[in-house]
Amino acid sequence: MRAFLLGLLLLLLSPLLRAEAPTVITFDQGQITVLRDKSKQMTLEQVRAAHAEGQFKPLAANLSLGFIPDAVWLRLSITQGQAAARWLEVMPPYLDDIRLFHIGTDGQIDERRAGDRLPQSAKEEDYRGTLFKLDLQAGEHELYLRLQTTSTMAAIVKLWQPDRFERHLRLGYFAYGLYFSLILTVMLFNAVNWVVSRRRIFLVYVGYLFLNSLQWLGINGFVAEFIFPAQPLLANLTLGMSLSLAAAMAFGFFIMVLDLKQHHPLLYRISLAGMALCIVTALATPLGHYGTFAPWMLGFGVLTLFAVPWPARRLWRTGDLWARLLAVAYLVYGVLIAINILGVLAVLPYGETINVAGMASNIAHILLLHFAIMLHYRRLEADHAAALEKSALAERQAALDKTYREDQDKLLAMITHEIRTPIAVIDAATQTLEALDDIPSADREERYERIHRSVNRLSVLLDLAVAQTRSDVADWQLTQGMIEPLALTDEVIKLLGNPLAQRIQVTAEEPLPTLIGDDRMLRFALLNLLDNATKYSPSDTPVIVRIKADNQGATWWIEDDGPGIQPGMEEKVFGKYVRAGESTGKAGLGLGLYLARHIVERHGGTLKVEAGRAQGACFVCYLPALNQEAQS
Fold this sequence. Notes:
Shape: rod-shaped
Number of strands: 18
Radius of gyration: 46 Å
Strand content: 15-25%
Number of helices: 16
Strand order of the largest sheet: 3-2-5-10-7-8
Number of domains: 3
C-alpha cells in the first residue's frame, strides 16, 4: 500500500517536472491598477473618469483584499503589434460576478459577463475558471474588469496564447486527476479498515477526507464544471458548506487523533469552540451569510494552528515511530494550511502558491499521518492480542490452581478423616487408663493431662484444616454459650503447647465482660492469630497479648516482633488465599486470617491490623458482650 501511494505521488509530479513552462503573457508590477468601489454603483464612464483623475492605484502583485463587501475595478492596457487571438484568464473560480469591458483600438466597448453565478453553458469556454476570448487588433487596447464576490476578494489575471493554454489545461487536469485519485484511494483503504476493525477513527478520517476533497473540488471550480454545471447556486452552496464542514471535521479529527481531551484540555476546549463556529458558518451559508462568518471561522482556525508545536512536542518526546510521524504530519499540515488561510485572509500575498499550499496539506495527511494512524492501531491490535493471550494463560493457570486446590482438599479431607479415628482411640484409651488407675501418681496425672491437651490440640487443628479447605464459615452452625475472654485466651495458649506457649505474655484489665458466642469458633479464630504471631516473629522474642474491656465488649491486642504488615496490605491480608508472609517461606494456604475475620464478624465484632507500626504486627480483635447476630 505504501509503495502504491508513493508511486501515485511520483506519477502526479513527474509530468509537471518534465514539462516546459507554458507560454503566458503576465503583467508586470504596476501594469494593473485597482480601484475600490464602496458604493458598488459606479458605471464604466465614472470609472474611466476616476482613472483620468488618478484614483486608480497600481497593484504590486495579484489582487488580494480579503473578505470585503466592495466591488473592485481592475484596469490594464495591452499594446498589440499585430492582430492575434488572446485568452484572458481570471482566477480563482469562485468569484461571483466578473464583468469585462474591452475598449478596442476603434473606441468601441465590448462588455462581457462571467462568474460562478452563471451556468457552465453561459461561459465562453467550458472551463473550471473564467476565460474571455479576445481578438486583438494591432494597436492599444484598454481593459476594465469589475469584480464582486461574497468570498475572498482575490484575483490572478493572465493573458494566454490559445495553443499554450490548451497544453496548460491538459497538464493541469491530469495533475488534478492524480491528486484526487490518490485521496480517493486512501479514503477507500480507510473505509475498508473501518469495516474490518470498526474503529471510529477510520470512519472520521474518511469523512474528513471526503469533505476536504469536496472543498478543494469546489475551490478549483470542478463542482461547477462537472457536478452542478447547470445549477451555479447549488455549486456555490456546496463550496461554502463543504469548506465549513471540512473545517469542523478537521477540529474533530485532530481532537481524536491527538487525544487533546486527555493531554491538552485547554486546546480541547478551544477546538470544540472552533468546531461550533464552523458548524454555525455552515448553517449560515444557505441563508446568504457565508461572507459574514467565514472570516471569523478562518481567523479562529489560523489562531489555533499556532498551538500546533505543543501536541507535536509531546508526540515527538514519546520516541514511538507512529507518534513522531504524527508529529511531523501535524506540523507540516499546520504550516501549509496556515499559509493557505493567511493568503485567503490577505495577510499574505495571494497567488497560486496559496492554493497549492492548501492542497499540499492533504499530502501530509496521506503520506505521513495516514501511516502514523495505521502504525498506532496495528500496535494497539498487537497489544490487544497479547493481552488476550495473557488473559487466556491466566485463565488456564486459574483452572490449574482450582484443580490443584480441589485435589489438595480431597487429600486433606481423606487424611483428616483417617486421623480422627486414631485420635478417638487414643482419647478413649487414655480415659480407660485413668479409670483403671485408682490412685495415679503425680507423674502419671501430668502425662494423662498432656495426652488430653495434645488430643484437644489435634482436634482443633483438624477443624482448622477442614475449615481452610472449605472456607465456608457462614455455613457453620453457632453453638451459643457463655465465654470468659481471659479463660478463652488461656485455653488457646495451652493448645499451642510448649515452647510456643511460653513465649506468650498476657495482660488483662479486670473486670472483663462475659461474652456470648460459639466457644469452638472463637477458639479457632484466636488460635489462628496467636499461631501467626509465633510463626512470623523470631523464636527468642515474646508475643504480647493485651485484653481489656472496651465499648461494652472485650478487645484483644496481639503484638509480635516480626517483619510486620507492609503498607497498603492492611486490608488485603484478610483476603482469601492471601499470605502476608509469603517471602518468609512459612507454610500455609492463606485462609487463616480470612476465616478468623469472618468468625469475629459473625459474632458482631471486628478484626483489623493496626496501621503505622515501625516494627512487627499488631492485630486488634473486638467482640461485643451482647451479640444479636450470633443468635440469628
